[in-house]
Amino acid sequence: MISTMDQPTSGRVHVDGKNIQQIKPLSLFRAKHIGFVFQFHHLLPHLTLQENVEIPMVVIERSKKTRSSKAEYLLEKVGLYEKRHAFANRISGGERQRTAIARSLANNPELILADEPTGNVDTHTGLEIMTFMIDHCREHATTLLVATHNHEIAQLTERIIYLKNGQLE
Fold it and tell me: Which CATH class is domain 26-168?
């Protein structure tokens, strides 16, 4: 619900004090305020890594120069600067996930929702990526909400909430 991708069947959902049912258009709100790292990267295969990272910035009408510069910076931070012109369908699953992480940071959102953000990378790379994401979020006062089964990744966060069968433990 907090992602604003689904509407409640009853009750209300507030994100940053705003009732999501009263926000129009939700797609613009989402692009400005929420970054997503899906379990499966959802990159557009016919675009380059750089173009995929630039997509959220197009929605909020950033200049081409700003988009390019920011995408290059983020791809460098996730170790993919040299592959920025590669097409998303020509790289490994781990590289796709790192590109998705860079894309989630593009608009400096206040909230990043990450579903198993390191699921497709090796342990060392996963820890590097999470450290980068956490540092980035601290620097930009961004809330990072991570869903993970990886205890090492969870231990990097400031707060851990355990769910079992949909209930808080």
Answer: alpha beta
